[in-house]
Amino acid sequence: MSHDPVTRRYTEGDYAQQNPDWDSADSPWKAQQVLALLARHGLAPASVVEVGCGAGGVLSALRAQLPQADLQGFDIAPGLPALWEQRRADGIRFTLGDYLSSDGPTPELTLMLDVLEHLGDPFAFLAGLRERTAWTVFHIPLDLSAISVLRERPLLHVRRKVGHLHYFTRGLALAMLEECGYEIVEARYTGASLNAPRRSFKTRLAGLLRRAVYAVNHDLGARLMGGETLLVLARPKETA
Description:
The protein is built from twelve helices and seven strands. By secondary structure, the chain is an alpha/beta fold. The chain has a seven-stranded mixed sheet with strand order 3-2-1-4-5-7-6, with helices on both faces. Strand 1 (about 45-50), helix 4 (about 55-65) and strand 2 form a beta-alpha-beta unit.
């Protein structure tokens, strides 16, 4: 058993107790975001690996649009195989373990959806992933905003509830990816606070103000009010 307190959160069941559905309700929405991004760039990957796949809902939602693709998910939480059983009928392979320690060919597409903010050392992980990926789609919550810093409570909440250890703005997230050797092909806001499922009444109410501010300056609005996530298509930079 790992002595790393970050890893123990997932291997010893703390995360599952706080989030028993592993955020499966958001999976179809995330899959739609990924598919639209791939379509804009004419990408139809024959092999997809999702790192930190949780219950496998995103891969299952992708299956209908990628019927011939080899889909594989990796995660380290020992309670997940029981949830994966219902996905195996879709022809999805799952592995309990660390993707960077696994063997196998490099997939055409790697998914890192809501993972970077959970890692103890995202820089080291991204450096290792760069050697095991071609195209990569990142989905990154932008927890850091002027309001969240002033209130602080929202940051502490996502730390306790869903294990976010790192907080990003759009600029900070893209800077980290570039520093770790990735070329940013596209980065766009998802409008998560406006159109993602499971929004609270308070979030929907705040969305009215956010919509008005975003219409004037989306970047400034995201940094001021938060409530956004970033979808990024990237690939390893070519080295001389």
